[in-house]
Specification:
about 300 residues; alpha/beta; D-Maltodextrin-Binding Protein, domain 2; six-stranded mixed sheet; 13 helices
């Protein structure tokens, strides 16, 4: 079985050796540098590693966590691929990112990232218990959302009042009652509430219990615009993972995904659908096989 070498320095003689060997073996060899936040779940790194192992050729994966966690736009601006090195990250889809970078058209969480549960102050739960319609929710709540996040445009387009800020600052704002709902994906809500409740010594932070938002949305791998080879390798690897069944095995056995599926498939929440006006034709044409079908 082909082994993927993972390293933590950008250049080593190992990679030079791989290039030398590949010239005789007829295999492509490329170094992939994975830029991400140190707080990101390991699901994405594991998926990237598996995709590179499933693609043709021998590739090297370098892990490059950003200090303090880069904002999404700054992370994207830091990517600069070369003939030998592909810089890759994952982030939520926008038409601008699709245009400015090379998007790998396989949704990484099968659309789960578009299902949102609110982080709230526990004392405000009765207000949400009495919500009976989307208009009711819009009129009673003020949302918190990231300054550069695609979600912010979706929420504002639906009519919500939105206070914007950096991710960490938004948790401070929620704890102080600056707004009353912070939509987080079903992949993020439980771990983040626990982490920030501990960090801020704010026992009152909790997941809201009765409501879930949904809009068509997911995160994708991105490489630099001109990095056609890197994009082809990643797409081939992800498709091969689907063909072998390994993608769904990684998906269904990941604890984070399994918890998210409990939120989505349990069916005990009021579900409000929001349009995503920024969803491109390209994403809408992605085959249904790559999207999760909710159990009714």
């Amino acid at each position: 079985m082909k082994k993927l070498r993972i390293k933590y320095a950008l250049k080593t003689s190992v990679f030079v050796f791989l290039l030398f060997v590949s010239s005789f073996c007829g295999l492509s060899a490329k170094e992939f540098v994975f830029i991400h936040s140190p707080n990101d779940p390991d699901y994405y790194a594991n998926l990237l590693k598996a995709a590179l192992e499933a693609a043709d050729g021998s590739h090297v994966l370098t892990d490059l966590p950003s200090e303090g966690g880069n904002p999404q736009n700054r992370t994207l601006r830091s990517m600069h691929s070369t003939d030998e090195v592909s810089y890759v990250t994952f982030t939520g889809h926008t038409p601008e990112r699709e245009k400015d970078f090379h998007q790998i058209d396989i949704p990484l969480t099968r659309g789960l990232f578009g299902y949102r549960v609110f982080a709230i102050l526990r004392e405000n739960q009765p207000m949400f218990d009495n919500i009976s319609a989307l208009d009711d929710l819009i009129s009673r709540t003020t949302m918190g959302s990231g300054s550069s996040w695609p979600d912010t445009d979706i929420l504002e387009n639906a009519g919500f009042r939105v206070l914007k800020g950096l991710h960490g600052n938004l948790w401070h704002m929620l704890a102080r009652g600056r707004f009353n709902a912070y939509p987080r994906s079903v992949l993020e809500i439980s771990a983040e509430v626990k982490r920030f409740a501990d960090k801020l010594n704010a026992d009152g932070l909790a997941p809201e219990q009765t409501i879930m938002l949904h809009y068509p949305f997911d995160v994708f791998f991105y490489v630099s615009k001109g990095d056609v080879e890197g994009a082809q390798i990643l797409k081939q690897g992800l498709i091969n993972l689907y063909k072998s069944g390994e993608f769904m095995e990684l998906f269904n056995t990941n604890l984070l995904i399994r918890e998210a599926l409990q939120y989505v498939d349990k069916g005990d929440r009021k579900l409000y659908e929001l349009p995503n006006p920024s969803l491109s034709d390209r994403v809408q044409k992605i085959d249904d096989v790559y999207w999760h079908k909710v159990n009714k």
